[in-house]
């Protein structure tokens, strides 16, 4: 079925070790029988957050802003230059980067012996090559990903033996502990804007208008409905000879009004961040109908002249920063930002009857035009003689298939029955999360018809019957027998107890959803249909 035997794999790893199972892991992958089909426009679905980012990008571009990519990693010294005495508080919200040191490893006599215990015969040339690899790694000339390969080359051994040498002989690598640096992941786009403006101040004419829609990182104690540790900011700066802080209000409106927002509030902050000029920092609010309250989504202000001077920026700078996730939550009426950004973790799966119906399909199908014709003929003849008393047999197809002469018959041998059993003409419907096989309104016992009337009237049809699916399997089996040079083939279905009995497949996704919601898959009943084929050269 194309599935990994996960329990079996993990048991082997526990018993035999990772390295040995890894070397043989190609055998554990299912063999591919078909190529991936890339169908343009089919099944694709975008994320609402990136849809919004794209719309905001277009608005900035229409307003004459130039898009830039700002540095994500910023040294803490930049934060001190921008925030002054407030910097320690700001840095408390930052993630610092730490790295593993490159160990200085020598080759002692003990290590020589340990290497040889791993099955490696050392020579003077190999020893010198290994010493060079270790020196180059220490100096950063060899990347971590390449170390095993370089050791294997130096000692002329397989990479599996090199991995063994690395783990057994050089425990220094396993003992390494991360060492902190002064590098931080930007918590505010501002920490990068000063660097970008410094780089572009003599390259662009005033007014310089730049924007960036990108991520920022905040060391939140926890994530909740309104806070994430990683989130997006649609941020812009304008540098010009003179600027009015109220321009920030106009920019905010120009970006958000095309998204459908009409109600805004702009409130001057009582306490100004130190990278802004005192009294020039404002918070922007839009009304969130889903939460029935005003939601802060942006702020703007004029950069402090002291911070500008530290970057040799000679003109005023206006900054506007918009929280993209908060805007998206207001647009979509979502009160929990986690559900919006990470639905795979926070939103319970909800499949509509229409979606489930698309996940119920005929499993095995004929691959040739002649096979498809045989399938149609089986259905046509079976329906035409459905009520014929058994034993009976009817020719459904006579002609060529894959260059051979084929005769296909629909039959029933059980005395006292008809050619088609009562359930053969049942159709697949999805109703209230259940996958059901139900008779047509004019067929079956009256009690069953009444019981299933609601399903037929309100359910979603999958678009095929038991007979359709069985005929599809029969045609595919006849194709297969013809290819293999067989003289005859039979396909017989009596009682259906599971979807697979009538060649129906309900996807694993739909199955799990149905079972977890205490719904059912009921494709059952007396089908009683037989198809046989005689194949001649």
Describe the structure.
- The structure is a single chain.
- The protein is of the alpha+beta class.
- It has four domains: 1-36, no CATH class; 48-95 and 186-346, 2-Layer Sandwich (BirA Bifunctional Protein, domain 2); 101-176, no CATH class; 356-536, no CATH class.
- Helices cover 36% and strands 24% of the residues.
- The protein has 21 helices and 20 strands.
- The strands form five sheets. Strands 1-5-6-10-9-8-7 form a seven-stranded mixed β-sheet, sandwiched between helices.
- A hairpin with a 2-residue loop joins β12 (392-401) and β13 (404-412).
- α3 (48-62) crosses α13 (324-332), α8 crosses α9 and α17 (369-384) crosses α20.
- The radius of gyration is 35 Å and the shape is flat.
- The mean pLDDT is 91.
Question: Which terms summarize this structure?
Answer:
flat, 4 domains, seven-stranded mixed β-sheet, alpha+beta, BirA Bifunctional Protein, domain 2, 537 residues
């Amino acid at each position: 079925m194309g599935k990994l035997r996960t329990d079996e794999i993990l048991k082997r790893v526990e018993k035999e070790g990772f390295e040995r199972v890894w070397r043989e892991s190609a055998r554990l992958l299912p063999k591919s029988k078909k190529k991936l089909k890339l169908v343009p426009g089919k099944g694709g679905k975008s994320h609402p957050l990136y849809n919004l980012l794209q719309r905001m990008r277009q608005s900035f571009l229409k307003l004459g802003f130039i898009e830039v990519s700002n540095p994500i990693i910023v040294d803490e010294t930049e934060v001190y230059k921008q925030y002054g005495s407030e910097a320690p508080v700001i840095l408390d919200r930052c993630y610092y980067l730490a790295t593993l040191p490159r160990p200085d490893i020598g080759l002692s006599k003990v290590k020589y012996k340990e290497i040889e215990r791993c099955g490696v015969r050392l020579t003077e040339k190999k020893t010198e090559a290994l010493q060079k690899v270790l020196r180059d790694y220490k100096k950063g000339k060899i990347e971590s990903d390449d170390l095993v390969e370089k050791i294997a080359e130096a000692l002329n051994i397989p990479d599996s033996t090199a991995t063994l040498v690395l783990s057994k002989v050089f425990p220094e690598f396993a003992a390494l502990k991360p060492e902190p640096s002064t590098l931080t992941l930007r918590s505010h786009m501002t920490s990068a804007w000063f660097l970008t403006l410094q780089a572009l101040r003599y390259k662009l004419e005033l007014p310089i208008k730049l924007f960036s829609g990108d991520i920022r990182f905040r060391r939140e104690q926890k994530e909740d409905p309104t806070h994430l540790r990683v989130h997006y900011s649609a941020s812009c700066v304008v540098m010009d000879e003179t600027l009015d802080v109220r321009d920030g209000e106009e920019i905010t409106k120009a970006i958000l009004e095309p998204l459908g927002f009409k109600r805004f509030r702009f409130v001057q902050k009582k306490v100004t961040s130190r990278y802004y000029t005192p009294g020039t920092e404002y918070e922007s609010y839009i009304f969130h109908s889903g939460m029935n309250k005003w939601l802060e989504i942006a702020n703007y202000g004029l950069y402090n002249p002291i911070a500008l001077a530290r970057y040799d920026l000679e003109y005023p700078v206006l900054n506007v920063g918009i929280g993209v996730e908060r805007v998206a939550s207001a647009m979509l009426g979502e009160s929990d930002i986690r559900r919006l950004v990470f639905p795979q973790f926070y939103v319970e799966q909800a499949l509509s009857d229409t979606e489930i119906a698309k996940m119920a399909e005929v499993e095995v199908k004929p691959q040739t035009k002649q096979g498809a014709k045989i399938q149609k003929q089986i259905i046509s003849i079976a329906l035409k003689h459905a009520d014929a008393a058994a034993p009976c047999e009817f020719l459904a197809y006579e002609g060529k298939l894959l260059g051979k002469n084929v005769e296909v018959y629909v039959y029933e041998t059980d005395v006292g029955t008809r050619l088609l059993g009562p359930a053969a003409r049942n159709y697949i419907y999805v109703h209230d999360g259940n996958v059901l096989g139900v008779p047509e309104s004019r067929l079956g016992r009256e009690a069953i018809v009444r019981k299933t009337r609601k399903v037929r009237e309100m359910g979603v049809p999958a678009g095929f019957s038991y007979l359709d699916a069985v005929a599809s399997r029969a045609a595919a089996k006849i194709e297969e027998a013809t290819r293999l040079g067989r003289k005859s083939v039979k396909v017989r279905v009596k009682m259906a107890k599971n979807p697979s009995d009538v060649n129906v497949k309900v996807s694993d996704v739909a199955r799990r959803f149905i079972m977890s919601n205490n719904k059912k898959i009921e494709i059952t009943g007396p089908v009683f249909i037989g198809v046989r084929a005689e194949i001649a050269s």
